[in-house]
Amino acid sequence: MAAEIISGTKMAREIRGEVARAIEEMTAAGEQIPGLATVLVGEDPASQSYVRMKNRAAREVGIRSRQIDLPDDIPEEELLGWIEGLNADPEIHGILVQLPLPDHIGRGAVLEAVHPGKDVDGFHPVNVGRMAVSDPAALVPCTPQGVVELLVRSGIETRGQNAVVVGRSNIVGRPMGQLLLAENPRGGDATVTVAHLFTRDLAEHTRLADILVVAAGHPGLITADMVKPGAVVIDVGINRVDDSSREKGYRLVGDVAFDEVREVASAITPVPGGVGPMTIAMLLSNTVKAARGLGGPLR
Ligand code: NAD
Ligand code: L34
Question: Between 8-28 and 275-291, two packed helices, what is the crossing angle to 10 degrees?
Fold first, then answer.
């Protein structure tokens, strides 16, 4: 049995249409046009490309977006000054500081400097805490929120299912586990295991998964023998592997050995075209939520 391939590209397009309509309604009602600021420190090519895609997607749905490019050697204090300026700017409702940051900059200090009501990445401790207690005012990190949307809109039941998340980062794995665990019939109510680098026997856990979400950053980590027949497999990983047959010299692959796992799973997301586009769609949706004053203490 070959798995159904869940298209994140197609679903993200639908969500972007919904966001565009919501913005039309807001502006027709005389509300403010949502504004997003993306902050990019340094010149990492992957980060540049993601930030460019985010700004383009924002403009396409009618969000006013502003990209702030800062040099790699910017002092932390100066970066914090930029964030303070954006916090105070009434035209900016969402602020995103692209990660990773250079080593000399304290990531915690930067993420805490963003006003929680403008924190469209959901990385501020206030939003992390709000999400942990299922407060509807939480701004929720885009990637795990995108995975929940993928599951729900594909009609995949999470309630009572065994969900296994591979990876425990603050950006993906940990919030993913919390969303699946939340008391929520919409993408929650699962029995959750979060595995990581120190998990003794990874396959022992993944084989129990009805829903397997993989965010490890390790190409080919999940092979067919690690997947229960009929499981739903969501591949968050984005890895560049050398490929001289491509113009760019590389291609993108996930963390799942796609060709073999699709033979045992009931549904699977591809890379590219899976979770990535959903991350961007959720950023747009979070920006509208923030502009409506529904996120954090601005509510
Ligand atoms: P990270 O490096 O911060 O975290 C990786 C996690 O995986 C860690 O918790 C680690 O313990 C675990 N891990 C690593 N190797 C493992 C192994 N062999 N067995 C078990 N656990 C292991 O990375 P991240 O920021 O969470 O990103 C993970 C992957 O997802 C990367 O490929 C990244 O590019 C991708 N990503 C994709 C999107 C998207 O929108 N699709 C968004 C963010 C990250
Ligand atoms: N602050 N930093 C912050 N927020 C984030 O949410 C991110 N991330 C990760 C890196 N740093 C961040 C992203 O947005 C990774 N990430 C991301 C977003 C989108 C895509 C990939 C990663 C994406 O759309 N990927 C496309 C392929 C794009 C290509 O061809 O290069 C896909 O189809 O998967």
Answer: 10
